[in-house]
């Protein structure tokens, strides 16, 4: 079993809550203020949640204002590790060997799982936030003045917020975490419940994305990226490794068109490291892949035309 502390009596996977959820505010006297160079993002290119924060940093043009370091995609028994390799590097700020050191400095008695993403504050020397939901919103909002060219709130426009949040919750439970529920189930009936719920949700999303270019309607919003990070990993990892194999994303014309549409937008493809993604899952979760073999395929076709222009122009509300 890969995560024994998060296994329910019924054979399900119960994910821990994020531990640090402080907010960066542009207010006098605020403990964490948005300042260029002050915060550093620790990610893994493999992790879908961390990928969302990396995407928002790039989409907003925050690369100069917020530093970023990626960890080795393969975790060892001490968790996420820094090192020298293709697409990952030593910790430039403190020379940490493990990301666990950030958690220990922030809360010496931290007993949970050390996860990415982490937003680190160089000034107070602690983790500000390790929730991708919060980090995405802060990057879009309070960090916007530090960005090259962006408008605050363009990915979370107030008029669409109720719909975005409804979709976020549904997609998180059934899709983002749904694939993990299938993969880490330890009983047949638990796996089957989750796999049918997952594909029922994908079927509904396929219909929705046949009518409109983006999940919340005519404009791209943050929740599009929530779904996208899971679609990107689906055929390469979740289909085989997590046994989510009723269908592939490639079998869904609208979901795969949406995947390619967003992949081909801006410089998004620069955030994609399929080698990290595959190595991470197949080499880290040894209880479900004991020999640690990494499959050679599939050959993902992310560069072919997506034909989504007919549904409306590309872009956010900004
Ligand atoms: N913050 C996310 C979870 C983040 C997360 O679990 N990240 C994984 C990688 S995809 C991780 O860091 N796992 C570390 C571990 O399992 O030891 C959430 O609340 O859903």
UniProtKB/TrEMBL annotation:
SUPFAM superfamilies: GST C-terminal domain-like (SSF47616), Thioredoxin-like (SSF52833)
Domain of life assignment: Bacteria
Domain GST N-terminal: 46-141
Residue ranges, annotated region (Disordered): 294-318
InterPro entries assigned to the protein according to its UniProt record, in alphabetical order: Glutathione-S-Trfase_C_sf, Glutathione_S-Trfase, Glutathione_S-Trfase_N, GST_Omega-like_C, GST_Omega/GSH, Thioredoxin-like_sf
CDD domains assigned: GST_C_Omega_like
Protein name, entry field: Glutathionyl-hydroquinone reductase YqjG
Organism from which the protein derives: Haloferula sargassicola
Taxonomic classification: Bacteria, Pseudomonadati, Verrucomicrobiota, Verrucomicrobiia, Verrucomicrobiales
Originating gene: yqjG
């Amino acid at each position: 079993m890969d995560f024994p502390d998060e296994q329910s009596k019924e054979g399900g996977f119960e994910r821990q809550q994020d531990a640090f959820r402080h907010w960066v505010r542009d207010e006098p006297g605020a403990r964490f203020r948005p300042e260029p160079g002050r915060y550093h993002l620790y990610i893994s290119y493999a992790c879908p949640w961390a990928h969302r924060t990396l995407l928002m940093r790039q989409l907003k043009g925050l690369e100069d204002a917020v530093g970023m370091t990626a960890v080795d995609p393969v975790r060892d028994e001490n968790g996420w590790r820094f090192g020298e390799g293709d697409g990952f590097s030593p910790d430039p700020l403190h020379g940490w060997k493990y990301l666990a050191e950030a958690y220990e400095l922030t809360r010496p008695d931290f007993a949970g799982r050390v996860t990415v993403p982490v937003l680190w504050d160089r000034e107070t020397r602690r983790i500000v936030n390790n929730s991708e939901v919060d980090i995405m919103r802060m990057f879009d909002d309070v960090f916007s003045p530090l960005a090259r060219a962006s408008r605050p709130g363009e990915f979370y426009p107030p008029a669409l917020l109720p719909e975005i949040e409804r979709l976020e919750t549904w997609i998180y439970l059934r899709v983002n975490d749904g694939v993990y529920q299938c993969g880490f189930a330890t009983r047949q009936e638990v796996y089957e419940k989750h796999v049918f719920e997952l594909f029922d949700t994908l079927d509904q999303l396929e219909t929705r994305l046949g009518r409109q270019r983006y999940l919340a309607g005519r404009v791209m919003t943050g929740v599009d990226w929530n779904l996208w990070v899971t679609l990107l990993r689906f055929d390469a990892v979740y289909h085989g490794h997590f046994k989510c194999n009723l269908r592939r994303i490639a079998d869904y014309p609208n979901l795969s068109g949406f995947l390619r549409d967003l992949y081909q937008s801006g410089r998004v493809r620069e955030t994609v490291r399929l080698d990290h993604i595959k190595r991470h899952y197949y080499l880290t979760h040894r209880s479900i892949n004991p020999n640690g073999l990494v499959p050679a395929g599939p050959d993902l076709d992310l560069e072919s035309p997506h034909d989504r222009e007919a549904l409306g122009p590309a872009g956010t509300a900004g």
